[in-house]
């Protein structure tokens, strides 16, 4: 679903070690300035590689962890059509995770290593997925707001300088925009439904509004790597610019639903032609990021439980493949196709 | 439930309605069970595959429930039939409602039902009931993929590690008693077969048994001795698990009667 601008220390771009490397970096930057795509076998500065691995992995992990809050409502979806749409959506997220892990693998890291980092609590994922889905309206709100915010962030990534990531994002964005429309349609149905459904929709907006704004990451003043990532065209717009775009698009959508954005300070500013929100409570963001959000333990716990419970299955598949390696074609597959 | 009028095929409306519900409910309940795996499967690829099978099964259930509603003629649509019937009015085979357990239990349950649906839908493509034959033709294509998946995993687990073998064998031993109703015709099966709406279950039985026996052999698993188990879900007699599954699935429709979602 999404990557958050979670710049963390540890991958500071190093200064070039030698004159030769400085020259290579200069030529690399020229390619980027000419809007050429960087491909896996091309030379790239180590800082560029590490920044991308971190960003793509966070994005992949977010997709995988993001399956959980929505998956929470699959068995309780209110109609069969809604159930199908929700299963397909959660599956799309799993699929996005797969392409993104593959994109990260082109940078010399394996999916297994990245998953180990996630399960060990050493990798980040978007803070939004540490909030609970308490009612069916949350499924609408996630599609509308969370996927909506993700799209704002991801559309510029379709033009990211790293080829495999940019190409993965093209497909992901198409699917996300479909998800966003589905989510909004759930909200519209609820907002025009019974008083209880309306109340459910308003409650979901109240709970998801601020965390959605936090999805864009810390404000520009606090964001460490924005400038370097911009030069490398890994990032095209600042956190605050993207957040503002999201607010400007989303507030009229809330008005169309006749739901109240939970921000008494929200106002339209004629001079700048933007909606201006009240201050974001960054202390909440930091709390969730540090692992103390409402569902951090549950989300990582569920991923670890699935990984541990699945170990014997993965071992069985590997053992079977080893036993039957000398046969022509994989035994189980071949057998299943033949019968 | 009031009996619908006699159908053009000579079946009593009640019989016809109930037979289509057997098919619909088996797909719906099994799809609901598989959907519980989404986000929690042993690997990402399996997560996507189980979700796909759930999508197919629930898609089949929608077609069948809508058709059942038309046969019944009381204006009930797919969601009313799925969300507003209680357990005794569900006619799925009891095997479908058994809990997911570990991945071996899910795979064994799936392989036993996939092989059965594959053979049953294959025969139903020749049903005298044309709308049912059309639904069967669509379902049959999906069932082939489901069987490829479940049979492939049954063989990998059975012939994988000692642990996976034991788990698969235990699941098979525990679930085998529920296969009796798949292959034992009751009065409704016989009446539907006599009108050529459904195949004689004996024909399905033979092909199902051969398919399962071959898969178990490849999987190095032992076929359990048959056990008489006369409490058949297809007659509305269920295990305790179905009530819980429906309680969860029907929660919103029951809590907010009459709302549109």
Describe what this molecule looks like in 3D.
The complex is a heterodimer of chains A (339) and B (261). Chain A has 339 residues and is mainly α. Chain A is 63% helix and 2% strand. Chain A is built from 13 helices and 2 strands, in the order αααααααααββαααα. In chain A, α2 packs antiparallel against α3 and α5 (137-154) runs antiparallel to α6 (163-191). The longest helix of chain A is centred in the middle third of the chain and has 29 residues, at 163-191. The two termini of chain A are 39 Å apart. Chain B has 261 residues and is mainly α. Chain B has one domain (9-224, 232-255): Ferritin, core subunit, four-helix bundle (Ferritin, Up-down Bundle), CATH 1.20.1260. Chain B has helices spanning 13-35, 44-72, 78-83, 94-97, 103-124, 130-158, 162-175, 180-183, 187-194, 201-218, 241-249, 251-255. The radius of gyration of chain B is 18 Å and the shape is globular. The two termini of chain B are 26 Å apart. The mean pLDDT of chain B is 96. Chains A and B meet through α2, α3, α11, α12 and α13 of A and α1, α2, α3, α6 and α7 of B.
């Amino acid at each position: 679903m999404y990557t958050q601008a979670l710049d963390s220390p540890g991958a500071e771009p190093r200064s070039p070690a030698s004159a030769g490397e400085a020259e290579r970096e200069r030529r690399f930057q020229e390619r980027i300035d000419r809007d050429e795509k960087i491909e896996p076998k091309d030379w790239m500065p180590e800082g560029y590689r590490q920044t991308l691995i971190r960003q793509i992995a966070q994005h992949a992990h977010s997709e995988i962890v993001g399956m959980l809050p929505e998956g929470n409502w699959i068995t309780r979806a209110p109609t069969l059509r809604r159930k199908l749409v929700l299963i397909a959506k959660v599956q799309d997220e799993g699929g996005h995770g797969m392409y993104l892990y593959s994109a990260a693998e082109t940078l010399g890291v394996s999916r297994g290593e990245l998953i180990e980092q996630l399960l060990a609590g050493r990798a980040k994922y978007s803070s939004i997925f540490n909030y609970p889905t308490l009612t069916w309206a949350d499924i609408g709100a996630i599609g509308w707001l969370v996927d909506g915010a993700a799209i704002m962030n991801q559309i510029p990534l379709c033009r990211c300088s790293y080829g495999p990531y940019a190409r993965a994002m093209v497909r992901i964005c198409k699917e996300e925009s479909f998800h966003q429309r589905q989510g909004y349609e759930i909200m519209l149905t609820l907002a025009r439904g019974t008083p209880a459904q309306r109340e459910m929709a308003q409650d979901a907006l109240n709970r998801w509004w601020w965390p959605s704004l936090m999805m864009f990451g810390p404000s520009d003043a606090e964001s460490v790597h924005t400038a370097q990532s911009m030069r490398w065209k890994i990032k095209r717009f600042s956190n605050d610019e993207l957040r503002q775009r999201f607010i400007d698009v989303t507030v009229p959508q809330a008005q169309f639903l006749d739901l109240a954005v939970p921000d008494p300070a929200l106002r339209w500013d004629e001079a700048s032609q933007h909606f201006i929100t009240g201050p974001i409570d960054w202390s909440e963001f930091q709390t969730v990021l540090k692992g103390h959000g409402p569902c951090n333990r549950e989300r990582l716990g569920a991923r670890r439980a699935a990984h541990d419970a699945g170990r014997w299955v993965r071992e069985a598949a590997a053992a079977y493949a080893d036993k039957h390696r000398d046969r022509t074609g994989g035994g189980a597959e071949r057998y299943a196709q033949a019968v | 439930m009031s009996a619908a009028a006699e159908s053009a095929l000579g079946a009593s409306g009640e019989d016809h309605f109930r037979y289509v519900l057997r098919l619909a409910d088996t797909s719906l309940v099994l799809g609901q069970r598989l959907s519980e795996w989404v986000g929690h499967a042993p690997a990402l690829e399996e997560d996507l595959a189980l979700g796909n099978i759930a999508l197919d099964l629930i898609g089949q259930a929608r077609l069948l429930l809508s058709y059942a509603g038309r046969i019944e003629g009381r204006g009930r649509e797919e969601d009313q039939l799925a969300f507003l019937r209680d357990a005794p009015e569900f006619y799925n085979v009891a095997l479908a409602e058994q809990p997911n357990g570990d991945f071996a239990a899910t795979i064994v349950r799936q392989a036993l039902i996939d092989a059965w649906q594959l053979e049953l839908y294959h025969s139903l493509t020749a049903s005298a009931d044309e709308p049912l034959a059309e639904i069967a033709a669509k379902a049959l294509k999906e069932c082939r993929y489901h069987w490829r998946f479940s049979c492939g995993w049954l063989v990998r687990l059975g012939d994988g590690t000692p642990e996976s073998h034991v788990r698969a064998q235990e699941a098979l031993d525990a679930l085998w008693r529920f296969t009796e109703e798949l292959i034992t015709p009751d009065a409704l099966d016989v009446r539907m077969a006599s009108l050529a709406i459904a195949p004689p279950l004996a024909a399905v039985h033979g092909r199902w048994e051969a398919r399962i026996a071959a898969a178990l052999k490849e999987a190095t698993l032992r076929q359990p001795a048959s056990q008489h188990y006369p409490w058949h879900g297809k007659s509305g007699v269920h295990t305790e698990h179905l009530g819980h599954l429906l309680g969860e699935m029907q929660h919103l429709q029951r809590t907010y009667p009459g709302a549109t979602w």
